[in-house]
From TrEMBL:
Taxonomic classification: Bacteria, Pseudomonadati, Bacteroidota, Flavobacteriia, Flavobacteriales
Family label: Belongs to the phosphofructokinase type A (PFKA) family. ATP-dependent PFK group I subfamily. Prokaryotic clade 'B1' sub-subfamily.
Record-level GO BP terms: canonical glycolysis; fructose 1,6-bisphosphate metabolic process; fructose 6-phosphate metabolic process
EC number: 2.7.1.11
List of residues binding ATP: 11, 72-73, 102-105
Gene Ontology MF terms in the entry: 6-phosphofructokinase activity; AMP binding; ATP binding; fructose-6-phosphate binding; identical protein binding; metal ion binding; monosaccharide binding
HAMAP family, alphabetized: Phosphofructokinase_I_B1
Record protein name field: ATP-dependent 6-phosphofructokinase
């Protein structure tokens, strides 16, 4: 392989730039060419490429978002679209690509690899941490730190006014952010999609907490929680059943996806970028690079797409004990 492309696809996350930098510099280190593809698969179809060298990625390790931009491409989901993308890569002399993204981006890469026997590697980039084959996805650690920073601030006002706060965090169908930031932020209750707490148990728990002398509390709720009510309906329901509580809702939203990546995410991005490029150079293809037990590993893309990234049940127990 003489030339590798790198792209970011799907939702952005902090650490994507550090991963782009790592891919580009690993190519330079091994004296092969690297091109950046703008706007994910859409830019691949349109041939929106830019040559990248070690100096073109200076000053980005500390930046959130992605300098290559990201996009969702409907056209890439069609075989005509993918043929156009293939032709563009051929024209540019690209012999393999590294895609930084989530499940959808990996699915696209997997299909593309099958169709054209084109070497591909994936780097998991999403704050949700919902990908099988890695303990951490790029941006997850940064998002956790952002969330606990917010919870700490909310706690100040909650305790000054003796209030109960419902804090909704991101994570789509996964509760990783809620569970970990809930424990790290000292939440009273944590509601996640993987564990059906139930409305009755929530009321019981809040009643108990009032009786135990707590004057203010924070409940962290994953956006994908399946309690059957959105966070505002949940507030109304709890207030109607427990009039002693005055509740405020805070939906943290997209701030969780931005910001300078944490040191952990920068190191993770650097390690995964090196591995992704070196795999392609060794003739490996169709894998996702990830981190398991602090070792860089590779998982077949199909397995990464199909597998479940389960939550750590032990954390649920820790959370329960902490809210005594
Ligand atoms: P995030 O986790 O942030 O949503 P993602 O990578 O899962 O990231 P998607 O929007 O699902 O984000 O996918 C990104 C892109 O990957 C899509 O816009 C599309 O171009 C491509 N893609 C997704 N699914 C397929 C598919 N089945 N076939 C071909 N391409 C696909």
């Amino acid at each position: 392989i003489k030339k590798i492309a790198v792209l970011t696809s799907g939702g952005d996350s902090p650490g994507m730039n550090a991963a782009i930098r790592s891919v580009v510099r690993t190519c330079a280190y091994h004296q092969i060419e690297c091109v950046g593809i703008y706007r994910g698969y859409q830019g691949m179809i349109e041939g929106d490429f830019i040559p990248m060298g070690p100096r073109t990625v200076h000053n980005i390790i500390n930046k959130g978002g992605t300098i290559l931009k990201s996009a969702r491409s409907k056209e890439f989901m069609t075989s005509e679209g993918r043929k156009k993308a293939y032709d563009q890569l051929q024209k540019a002399g690209v012999e393999g690509f590294v895609v930084i993204g989530g499940d959808g981006s990996f699915t696209g890469a997997e299909i593309f690899n099958k169709e054209f026997q084109f070497p591909v590697m994936g780097i998991p980039g999403t704050i949700d941490n919902d990908i099988f084959g890695t303990s951490h996805t790029l941006g997850y650690d940064t998002a956790l730190n952002t969330v606990i920073d917010c919870i700490d601030k909310i706690r100040d006002t909650a305790s000054s006014h003796n209030r109960l706060f419902f804090v909704e965090v991101m994570g789509r169908d996964a509760g990783h952010i809620a569970l970990n930031a809930g424990i790290g932020g000292g939440a009273e209750e944590i509601l996640i999609p993987e564990e059906e707490l139930g409305l009755e148990r929530l009321l019981e728990s809040l009643k108990k907490s009032k009786a135990s002398g707590k004057s203010s509390s924070i409940v962290v709720i994953a956006e994908g929680d399946k309690i059957g009510k959105n966070v505002f309906e949940l507030k109304d329901y709890v207030e109607a059943n427990l009039p002693e509580y005055e509740i405020r809702v805070s939906v943290l939203g997209h701030m969780q996806r931005g910001g300078a990546p944490s040191c952990y995410d920068r190191v993770l991005a650097s390690r995964l970028g090196v591995k992704a490029v070196e795999c392609l150079l060794e003739g490996k293809s169709n894998f996702m690079v990830g981190m398991l037990n602090d070792k860089v590993t590779i998982t077949p893309l199909l397995q990464a797409i199909k597998g479940e990234s389960e939550i750590d049940r032990e954390l649920l127990r820790v959370a329960e004990i902490m809210s005594v």
